[in-house]
Write a structure and sequence with these properties.
Length: 588
Amino acid sequence: MRQCNTVEELVHLAHDHLDTISPRGMAAFWSLLVKHLHKQDGKSRSQLNGQLNAILLNTIERIGLFSCRNLATTALGLAKVMKEVESCGLTVPAGSVYQFLHDLTVGINMEKKRYILDTVAKSSLLILSEFDARCLSNLIYSFGLAGYTPKFEGGLTILDVLANESISKLQYFNSQDLSNMLWSFATMESSNSVLFKAAGDHIVALDNLSSFKPQELANIAWAYATADQSHPQLFNIIAKHIVALYDLWNFLPQALSNIVWSYASAGESHPQLFNIISKHIVALDDLWNFLPQALSNIVWAYATAGETHPLLFRKLADVAIARRREFDPQSIANLLWAYATVGQLELHLFTSFAPAAKLFLSKCNCQNIANIAWAYAVVNVNDSSLFDSDFINSCQTKKDDFGQANLSQLHQWQLWQDELKSGINLPPALREKCRQAFVTRVPRPSRFQNDVISELLSIGLNPKEEVLTPNGYRIDALVEVNGKRVCIEVDGPHHFVSRQPTGNTILKRRQVNDPDKNRLISVPYWEWNMLGTDHGKKQEYLCCKLGLFAKQRKRRSQDLLEGDTYKLTNKKVAWLTGSVKSVWSPAA
């Protein structure tokens, strides 16, 4: 059969020897068929229909007599055929071999697919103990490719049974077997925690991962993230292996995308991994091999992981702009959200994507709509053609489906529209619903915030904590200085990405800071940490920030951060506030 060059030759040969063909030959037929399908011109081959039907019937009737290897090979070949003909969708020409194979192996509402794979599953149970690691992996992979999991009486699935068998033979699985098996379980949403734990432990216990190909590493990480299976040691060892490689030229774009997406989705922090992948992508001359979804997933992953790499974001922005017509609604929303989240205000990117976002607005789900609106508010790129009555209608249509986080994003978008005086408003009921979602978030003061409040009290101020502003924001502390109110934001690490303000920080500062009413100052965590445990230095730092030193505040604030030490003396000199009778002087 391996000498056949076309579908016709292969089918004719198998059909002519149907009475004598061995199980091994039948398995080889289904394994080779999909390879020849790739060469098809889509034209009708009506003479093959009857022959293919006869071959499939013969396979199903005899499959109960196949050995484990022939059964697994046949199942995998059939699954590949099913996947191939389904992937063509509506582009399959009427009367073509593709259409006939679809009718034969998939059928209406997948009734043929279910029958075939149910038969495979039942037959495998009879000889399950005879399956070795490769056959087990191939059998599991066939169900993953086909996208169907047979069920037995009592609710048990074939994957439940195969998981138990695989655990007992994990030591015999090679890298491809492990990758295919885990990928299949994740794809079929069969989160068998015992299997994932055992497989992860097995991989971690290996001497090294040199036998794992880049795609296998990507698939394993993707499987754990997709199945929501935690295994920090596994993620750590994969990351260390990739970081230690001389280069990443063997990693395909999709693999790179899947890796960073997996680490971000699983909440596994590994800055070195993100750094080396960023440098690799930036060094590439051509990024046209990266699909739009991969571009979107990469920046989404970096934003979610709190990893900002300006050169990477700028380079991907240029490619995304050039290919903006290829993006789907989800990819557009994720892309724009990511840039806004890390504070990468690529104005040209947002201007360029506005028409595409407008085009897909009716196809966007609630999260897409809210993410797009929030992202444009952060970057402050106003496009009246995007945010018009159609946008308002889309929000109103989905008003009952928005989650609390999305409603909060829409509230911030509405505040932005108020800033712009655009006249674009959410319907009153929806607008109030968004505001309520925004203001009802429970504040959780940090230890850092409590420390700043304590020092403010020590210098004689009377800070009000968690003050709710008219537009719904909560201010960490509000004090009065020289008869004017000053808002103090205690900005911890989650307010920044590499010490650059996040999108939320940028938006809050802009929407709270009002020169006519409130001045807003920020106390960044790294500046506060530099002051150590010296209360005097912390208090003078705050005085400088608040303008309590009329002449020296700029110089003194910098001196403090550079190590100059100041302390309180007992000299009774009135401060500008008139409320405290002491003054700062240099330490002896």
